[in-house]
Amino acid sequence: MTTGDWCKILKTLEEVGQRCCEVLWIRPEQIDLEFIKNAVEVKGLKRIVSVGCGCGLLEWLLQAATGVHVIGIEIDPNYWNSKYFNRTKLKYIPLLFPQDEGFNSALLDKNAVLLFCYFNNRKAFNKYIDKYLGSCVIIIGPGLDSGRHTDPQPFDVDFKKDWTLVDSKEIRDSKDFIAVYVRKI
Questions:
Q1: Which one, of 35, 47, 68, lies nearest residue 154 by Cα?
Q2: CATH number of the domain that 166 lies in?
Q3: Whole-prediction pTM value?
Q4: Does 111 fall in a domain?
Q5: Is position 1 within any domain?
């Protein structure tokens, strides 16, 4: 999907409340999308590589609302191309898979921010971080006592050993947070 009314989608997400989790884990407002864009631009970076982006609705919203370029990374092309994939869930952005040319270079891109939204696989997360050559990571997920879980969480103590939290923002009053980290030198 390359065109569409992103404002209408944000309004719909606001109206449907928590039911939106079928296609998007978070319910961002325009200010949240601008917050992410600013994190990219302040660091002098050019794009976002979103790991485990699913259908890519958040990433499409980021591109449509702010103009920041986003690349989506997924692991299993068989799921996305199988008869079991729910065809009502669109792929909003093109996805790169491990066998695709450009997959590894996207992860090694020093001019890109790595984004993890509601990621829930610490072992895979650590592998991505170990490969990543860039300087900025954004983690979106639930705060403590939200009743939801991700691994890593936005304010993960273990992750802070090699990275410094430089900014964060709650999304609405949802107990979901955007956490921006830079690599310690």
A1: 35
A2: 3.40.50.150
A3: 0.88
A4: yes
A5: no
The beta-carbon contacts of 8-13 under 8 Å, at least 24 apart in sequence, are: 9/57, 9/61, 10/61, 10/65
Q: What is the average pLDDT value for the chain, to the nearest integer?
A: 86
In terms of residue numbers, what domain contains 155?
6-14+21-183
Token output for 112: 């890109």
**18 φ, ψ (degrees, to nearest 5):** -65, -15
pLDDT digits (tens, 9 = 90+) for 114-169: 999 999 999 999 999 999 999 999 999 998 887 888 999 999 888 888 999 999 99
Quote the CA–CA distance of 138 and 115 in Å, as a whole number: 5
Res. 61 pLDDT band, cuts 50 70 90: very high
Distance between CA 150 and CA 103 in Å, rounded? 24
Question: Bridge-partner residues for 114, per DSSP?
Answer: 49, 137
* Total number of domains constituting the chain: 1
* Residue 139 forms part of a structural domain: yes
Inside any domain, residue 121: yes
